[in-house]
Specification:
Layout: E1 6-8, H1 16-26, H2 39-69, E2 71-80, E3 85-92, H3 102-116, E4 121-127, E5 131-138, H4 141-150, H5 163-171, E6 181-188, H6 199-208, E7 211-218, H7 226-235, E8 240-243, H8 246-259, E9 267-274, H9 276-296
Parallel strand pairs: 3-4, 3-6, 6-7, 7-8
Antiparallel strand pairs: 1-2, 2-9, 4-5
Helix pairs in contact: 2-9, 3-4, 3-8, 5-6
Amino acid sequence: MIFENYTFEYPYAFLILILFYLCLKFCKAKGISFYFPNLALLQQASRKSMLLINSLKFLTILFLIIALASPIKEDNVVVRNDKGYEISLILDASGSMQEANKFNIVKDIVTDFVNKRENDRLGLSIFADFAYVAIPLTYDKNSIKRLLSKIDVGIAGRQRTALNEALFLSSNLFKTSKSKNKIAILLTDGMDNTNTIPLKVAIKTAKKYGIKVYTIGVGSVGDFNPAVLKEISSQTNAKFFHANTIQGLKDIYSTINKLEKSEIKADKYVKKTYFYQYFLAFALLFFLAYFYIVNKE
């Protein structure tokens, strides 16, 4: 969502609007009364002008109150956490993942997993006809969740499954990593049929950077190659899983979350970006317009 991280520091300031309304209704200034024989005509002539004056007055007050409430944007910023986990999420987005709504189910479960890895750096890779790194390792979970919500089957083609290439590319994300806990979770419902990267090279690259690669085969055995997925996981000291139900897939991600539980608390702070000055500037402009029109008349 666009306004997901936006809030007000002092939301109670909006109660002033109630006071403003009550004052308008009950605190009218007393003035000298003049009587005109054609008062209705006079009121009609000044109606448009009063509408403008009252609108400017209201907008001035409204923008002053918004400035007083102090609209801000809050972002969690991690200063240092080289002892936490670094996790590469590798998802199959080939045409077969569209069957039985598999890809959307996977996205929901992975999003839930991302929410649980509060102090870890995560990356996201997608593969089908080719593989690509959608998001490199980052603490910005919102970016990963936003992208997950937008990607769909077909974004990297539909016909083939570049599984080895995806493992190779995502392993290279850890080239400069200093983390002691590096894992990848590779999910697929197919077999590599692009032959762009040999399986041995992909596994060797993962081992070179000390990455534990958990592999998940979804659907029926025969759709994917369990022997290949077992080889990847066993050679990198991780585990192979098979899921053919939604609950089964949820349990797998939950198990991995428990197996690789991060107890490290990151050094982080909340970065606040203030926007009150813009509303204050608009309030000043409305007030100057109000002042000009009132004195002009």
